[in-house]
Design goal:
alpha+beta, nine-stranded mixed sheet
């Protein structure tokens, strides 16, 4: 063991020395370029007119050793270099992929070739030349010009081992994108997913809007906000934890179908499914209910998956997820199916408490029958929901903004949908009774303050005023974009689909 530690320390020391040499040599090269009046950082543009992927597609049928007279200009990062005396090969990586370049001293000239030989892997270069296919069958560019556009003063991670440290990959996403091309593919797909979501909602007559990120006070919802201060108005403000209340104000105002792609901030825990800031889409449609929104979710998920992935069967975390088939169960049905407990037979909060203790289910802070039903769901059901499933008719205690079910006021017209034991979205038939809403808000804030006397939550009475003007029957849906991207890119952690996830500073 002692020998292993000594060897490991020696290797680390050697790597540090080598890195120091590399940093010194690269800066010396930059100083020499500047001394010669060839500072690469003074170059402002390059006439790039082609991309690697397009060239390979255009000349896919070109035979081995065949030449063309097609002149192309490319720009990108040099990822490999093999110097062989009078001629050299390198690979250039641009926005669309990699392509081999061939550089000969007798073609570009003695001095430019000497300059090319001094270039380092990681340098940004521009090249001009003609397309050909090598004897080995690789589409390449025979260079007539190679220009250094930006000097890389830090070396890229070693070719065959790359950037493997997961935390460092998140901290230095710029390096991760350079050396791990599949990472860029994830974020290209993320952009495609957002585009498809917008296209789908636009096609259904929804209007995209923007609502405030800074809000005047903390509402009674359980999510903890980030606090800030507005200097000009001399008032504390919070970063929004949802977009819901502003969007429903717009429904009151006569905008019947609205949605927002919004950044949300919650000052809470972090794990593979949660980041303090994340992207959600909330949408609201007048004159519809939660059943219609289930149909909308199914169609939306099928459409986006088909257009982005080319299939409705998606591999995710070892499962084959079939987005073409969805199950629907009430929360009561799901709890009975997976725990054996029928909450229809439980008459009081006290009985529910006794059943929870019998089944070793944690009691919620306010142990009502409905809240305990939700705890049973968390304990027995959620982990079983691998294939797409709607769970609907939630207890009123955990649904302060949802409309009560006609004839069964203990439950609400609310659903969530689950895939791979994870909640992906939440929807209601929206509560539009201002009297009921005011009472629920006030009760919610009172419960928060009873649990945390320092809590600064307030009732949003302006929203209640909006409801008093009349909110039509409305269906509302919110879902996390990041979790959808995780699903469609088979990414196990939310940090894998955020370009710059929240990280604690190294120092």
């Amino acid at each position: 063991m002692a020998e292993e530690k000594r060897t490991g320390a020696a290797e680390a020391a050697e790597a540090e020395v080598n890195l120091g040499d590399i940093l010194r040599v690269r800066r010396e090269k930059l100083a020499a370029l500047r001394e010669a009046g060839a500072d690469p950082f003074q170059i402002t543009k390059y006439p790039q007119d082609s991309y690697s992927k397009d060239i390979k597609a255009r000349f896919a049928d070109l035979e081995a050793e065949a030449e063309t007279d097609v002149v192309v200009c490319l720009a990108g990062r040099m990822m490999t270099k093999r110097v062989m005396g009078k001629a050299s090969f390198a690979h250039l990586r641009d926005d669309k992929g990699d392509i081999q370049i061939y550089v000969r001293r007798d073609v570009i000239g003695e001095e430019p070739y000497a300059g090319f030989k001094k270039m380092d892997i990681g340098d940004i270069i521009g090249i001009k030349g003609t397309v050909f296919r090598t004897k080995m069958g690789e589409i390449s560019v025979r260079c007539t010009e190679v220009v250094l556009l930006a000097k890389s003063l830090l070396p890229l991670p070693e070719k065959f081992h790359g950037l493997k440290d997961q935390e460092m990959r998140y901290r230095q996403r710029y390096v991760d994108l350079i050396v791990n091309p599949e990472v860029k593919d994830t974020f290209v797909k993320r952009s495609m997913i957002l585009r498809e979501l917008r296209a789908f909602l636009d096609s259904k007559g929804f209007l995209e809007v923007d609502t405030p990120i800074l809000t005047p006070f903390e509402i009674g919802a359980s999510a903890r906000p980030f606090m800030t201060h507005h200097n000009t108005l001399d008032m504390d403000m919070v970063l929004r934890i949802e977009t819901e209340l502003y969007l429903k104000r717009l429904i009151v105002g006569g905008m019947d179908r609205v949605y927002e792609v919004g950044r949300i901030f919650r000052n809470e825990g972090m794990d593979p499914k949660h980041n303090p800031e994340f992207t959600s889409i909330e949408l609201y449609q007048a004159y519809t209910d939660y059943h219609a929104l289930m149909d909308l979710v199914e169609e939306m998920m099928r459409t986006v998956a088909q257009n982005v992935c080319g299939s409705l069967v998606i591999p995710y975390c070892g499962h084959e997820i079939d987005l073409g088939h969805w199950e629907r169960m009430t929360m009561l049905e799901a709890v009975k199916k997976y725990s054996g407990v029928d909450f229809n037979e439980i008459g009081s909060d006290e009985e529910a408490i006794a059943v929870a203790k019998k089944y070793h289910v944690d009691l919620p802070e306010v142990p009502t029958k409905g809240a305990i039903l939700a705890e049973f769901f968390d304990a027995f059901v959620e982990e079983k929901l691998i294939q797409p499933t709607f769970i609907y008719d939630y207890p009123v205690e955990i649904s302060p903004l949802a409309k009560r079910k006609p004839g069964d006021p203990a439950y609400t017209e609310r659903f969530e949908y689950f895939i791979n034991a994870t909640e992906f979205g939440n929807a209601f038939s929206e509560l539009n009774d201002p009297i009921d809403q005011k009472e629920r808000f006030e009760r919610q804030v009172a419960e928060r303050k009873a649990l945390d006397p320092k809590c600064r939550a307030q009732v949003d009475y302006d929203y209640v005023t909006a409801l008093e003007y009349g909110l039509p029957p409305t269906g509302g849906l919110g879902f996390g974009v990041d979790r959808l991207v995780m699903l469609l890119t088979d990414s196990p952690s939310i940090r894998d689909v955020l370009l710059f996830p929240t990280m604690k500073p190294v120092d």
